[in-house]
Every structure is written in structure tokens, then in C-alpha cells.
Amino acid sequence: MASSSKRKDRAPEHHSKVARNSGFLAISAGVVGAVSYACTLLMASMLETTQYTHFAAAAMILGVVGIVANALVPLPLSHVVAVHPEGSEERRNGMAFSVYVSALSGLAAAIITGGVTLALAGPALAAPVALAALGIFVANAPSGWLQGELRFTWYALSTIGEVGLRFVFSLLVIWMAWGAGGAVLGFVAGCLAPLVVPWSFYRDLRWRPGVLLEKWRWSETGDIALVLCVVSVLVGVDVVVVGFLDGGSTAAAGFQALATIAKGPVYVAVGTALVAFPLLRSREAKTAEVLGASFASFGQLAVVAFAIIATAPPLMAGMLIPEKYHGSLGLLPWLAASGLGYAVLMVLSTVLLAMRAYRRCQLGLACACLLVVGGLWAGWETNAVDGMAMGSAVGAVTAGLVMAVLARPVLAAAASTPGKGTGRFVIPAAALVVVLAAAAQVQPLLWLAIAMISGVTVLAHQRGLLPRRNDFKLRRRRPPGAAVDLRTGRRSMAPQAKASGRVQSNEYGAER
């Protein structure tokens, strides 16, 4: 009972930190992406051509493993941890189920990936790939626990530590000349970082194989895994398709390099999703408040990321990719638009999952698959690689809009007033894009200064470091029973007034 009361007392505090945590996790995801990109470039430069080909194939296989593992384990476990207090039987049952699923799925992934790699490159590479596949699955249970506990700082440091260990191990591989197999062992070394979590995680682990017979747990996990797998595939399908249709060409390679950079808004979506899901699933969640804060945080960060990427002058963007791909820089605005569409799709899918609107979410993703694949096909038929960039943008943005239309009734039922304040947000967002585009044409250094100021301002605003509108207007009339918080300048009702208010509930039935 005491633990439950403690959770209720902390609930408003967590809701007020949605924006702060979303921005922080978006930055950490960006750091992880940058370091991963650096690892790939390092291997491309230092390994022999044959060894790098084998490493790239193994990395692609493990990327698919990571998508499945992230979809199957963390979010279902974060729900259990967010709802049930430490030491409770239901939390221990949920954790046992997640660990069993991680281990069993990891063993299956190790056998499958090891067999596939054995056929491609022999046992020297197959063994590290199999071990890495198992490690990726096992490391996901602690990550889900951290999300459910709302320990986002620890989670961010854990993910950065994972990719950091991989980078250090990559340097060791080059120094010791271990080849592609040694490079893949970097994935195994990185999996050690997520296992370093507070002891309370291990204290709640129990041997309870009976939970594997509970069908409702499999149903819940399956619904979430299906949605997240489809979203993850959609986010990366353009890079895979262009490589398949025009593999080996400079245009396709430039498309792939720029598409990776243009996924910046997706990092923002990942941060928002990680924060919003456990908060919306908790019993004490103030749904409207969490949704409002999440959408506001996502909108601010995603628009700034899109504006910076889409308007980047060739002088600046060219520093991020090899010179031989500079002919593809004109595709960056289209790829940035597709990244924004994928980000909207990811956030809305996660929100619908959190509110148990499974069928509505799956319908939206079915439409998204048709729109994205159709856009890529139409673009390729129209103008090859350049047309595919345009088709990707049109398909992804349209898919995001369709998902928004489908999500609107659910958001309205949650009293989140969808669309409120959209006009006030769209105008400054459009103005930022116009200003950055003009600055890019006039002077790249001016563009850089405006871009940096925009990013720092939004992050400072979300961290609560900027003065608020009422900070200089504390002396004003206020209704009886209201008090003013001297730190924020906001009114809060007296305990008697609060007692008479209504309490929102977050118990939504699944759309079956």
C-alpha cells in the first residue's frame, strides 16, 4: 500500500517531466546513431573488402534481430513495471515472462542467424553472429524495466554505453587484426552495458515457468510486437529497396547515406515513445496531460530537426558524407520530409498501443504499408533514385496523416483536445523553415548560427531553463483558494478545491 501511495505522489512529477525526458532521450538516440555510423565508417576504412562485405552482411542480420527484440520485450515489460509496485507478485510474474521470452527468442535467433551466416561466410563469423543475436535479446529485459521505472537517464546512459563499448571494441579489433568475426564480437561486448541496472531489477526475478502458459500475456506481447515490427520495417524500407533496385550505383549509395541522416525526426519519435508509453499505461496517469505534453515536446523537437535537415546548405551537409556522394545532396529535403512522416507514424502508433487501440493502430499501419510501398514504386518508375526520394516523402507524409485521422477519435475520447493550438504551432514552425532556407541561400554560417540557436532554445525551453510568461507577473488577483507556485508562476488549487475535482481514468478497453 505504501509503495502504491508513493507512486501516486510521484505521478504528477513524472507528467511534468515528459518534455524534459523526451528531449534528453532524443539526444541520446542521436548520439547512439552517430557513434554507430562512426563504427561502420571505421570498419569500411580499415577492413579488407571481403572482410567488410562479411561484416556488413552480419550487421544487417543483427539489425533485423534488434528490430524484433525491441518489439517483443521492452514495451510489454514496461507496462507491467509501470502498473505494479516493486515486490508485487504481478510484477515478478511479468518480469519472469519477459526474461523467458528473451531467452527463448534469443536461442531461436542464434540458431537461425548462425545457420544463415554459416552458409554465407563460414564458422569463424557464424559463431559471433549467433552469440550476438542471443545477447541482443537478453539485454532487452533490463531496458524494458528501466522504461517502466521511468529511469530515463539511466536508460539513456545504458544505450550510449552499449554503443560506446562497441566502438572501443572496434578499435581493439583493428589493432589485433581479428577481421569480420572480431568486429561482430563488438555487438556482444555492447550487450554487457544494458545488464548494469539497479539491483532491484534482479531482486524481483523469480523462477516461474508457469507464466508461459498464460495466453493473455502472449496476446498482449504479440499485438505490441506486430505493430513495432511493421513500424521499424517501414522506417528502413527505402534504404533496403533502393539498394535492391539500383545496388552498386553511386546514386543509390548517396540515397542510403543521406536517408540515414534524414531520419533525425525518428530519433525524436523514439524519445517521445519511450516516455509516453509507460506513463499512459500507469493506473494513475492523467491521460490528457501526458498526451498534451508528449505531442508538444515531439512537435517542437521534430519540426526543428526537420527544418535543419531539409534546409542544410551543401557546404554543411557535404561534411557528413564522402565527396563522391555529393551529387545526391539535392535529395535531402525530400528525405527529411519522409523522416518527419515516419516519426509521426511512430509516435501515433505508440500512443494507440498505450491506449490499447490495437485494431485501429493495425488498420493505420496497413494503410501506411500500401502508401509507403506505393510511393516508392511510383517514384522509381517515374525517375529512378531521384523519383524514389520524392515518392518516399509523399508516401510517408500521407501515411502519417492517415494515422492521425484514425487516431483522432481515440485522442478525443481521452479528452486530449486534439488539434488545440495547432495554428499557433504551425505558424512559427513554417517561419523557422523559411528563415533557415533563406539563410542557407545567403550565408551558410548564418544558417549554422540560426540552426544552433533554434535547437538550443527548444531544448532549454523543454528543460525549463527559459523564463515563462508569468514569471514577472506574480502579483495579480487570483480566485479564493488558489495559491501561486513561486518557482513556476502557476496557480494550484487548495486541497479543499482539489478534493471536489474529478479524477480522470486511463482504463480503456482494447479495440477487438
Which short descriptors sum up this protein?
disordered C terminus; mainly alpha; globular; 512 residues
Q: Could you explain the architecture of this structure?
A:
With 512 residues, this protein is mostly helical. The protein contains 20 helices and two strands. The chain has a two-stranded antiparallel ribbon. A hairpin with a 6-residue loop joins β1 (482-484) and β2 (491-493). The radius of gyration is 24 Å and the shape is globular. The model is unreliable at 1-16 and 470-512 (pLDDT under 50).
What gross morphology would you assign? globular
**Low-confidence sequence ranges:** 1-16, 470-512
What percentage of residues falls in helices of 4 or more residues? over 70%
Helical/strand content category: mainly alpha
Query: What is the H/E string?
Result: HHHHHHHHHHHHHHHHHHHEEH
Oligomer: single chain
- Largest sheet report: 2 strands, antiparallel
C-alpha-based Rg, rounded: 24 Å
- The tally of helices reads 20
Strand residue content? under 5%
| Mean pLDDT level | 79
Widest sheet: strand order? 1-2
Q: Compute the number of strand runs.
A: 2
CA distance, first residue to last residue: 33 Å
Task: Describe the secondary-structure layout.
Layout: H1 2-16, H2 18-46, H3 49-72, H4 74-83, H5 89-121, H6 123-138, H7 140-148, H8 152-176, H9 179-190, H10 199-203, H11 215-246, H12 250-262, H13 264-281, H14 287-310, H15 314-317, H16 332-354, H17 358-413, H18 422-442, H19 444-462, E1 482-484, E2 491-493, H20 495-499
Antiparallel strand pairs: 1-2
